[in-house]
Amino acid sequence: MQVWRSGVNFGTTLWEEPTGAQPRVGLGSSPAVILVVVAHTPLCGWRNLRRCLSPAEGFLLVAAQRSPEQLRFQCRKLAPCVLVIDEPSLESLEWPELGAADYGRAVRVLVVGTNKDDRTVQSLVRMGYMGFVDEAVAPSVLKKAVRAVACGELWAGRRVIADVVQQLLCSLNSPKLTPRENEILKLIARGLKNRAIAEKLCITHETVRWHIRSLHSKLGLQDRLGTALYAQTLLREEPLAVAASAERER
Known about the structure:
Elements: E1 2-5, E2 8-12, E3 34-39, H1 41-44, H2 49-52, E4 59-63, H3 68-78, E5 81-86, H4 87-91, E6 107-113, H5 118-126, E7 131-134, H6 139-150, H7 158-173, H8 179-189, H9 194-201, H10 205-219, H11 224-235, H12 243-247
Helix pairs in contact: 5-7, 8-10, 8-11, 9-10
């Protein structure tokens, strides 16, 4: 079956069944048929893919165009749809050019890969992608993931979603800090002591203490550990180098 929009062919479906009129496709809380563009070669060759994302299950599965330019054009014209794609292919697409397709609402992207840690998945979600699924996932889980993404849900672990929401709330409610205060906040999050911060920034130890008192006042915090934990959440810095050294340094 060929998928047509405005008289142009945008891809061949990956299933073979007798067809009549093209079904109504879309996204939302309960889409009639979910249009899925697959741009991940291992999945395209997966024999269970056609079965778990078949028309009988409410999906219209379309093979992606090969080149990044063709795939961008395909997604724009097939929107609304779900794009299932691997990370290397995603990086080559230069998604900012997809603005006309209302990316994030009309084209919902589910990234496929292997063994991604929480931090990487958080980064994908913050960038606007709808989630991550392991390429070795069971067919039933892949089906749930695609359906969830089509309905506007994020497909990620609860901790990942909670961390992203917490970071968003912190950024919305964060006080305005000076450039120097931001520098010191990042260094505190990395576990540096006051004297190390002073040496790194070429300022006096007393100046560092003055900035930290200002940070405590602006952030509504009372100790260094609370400041470090706040910095990790807000600035998404690496974990504390040495928790004990961050607990207290006057």
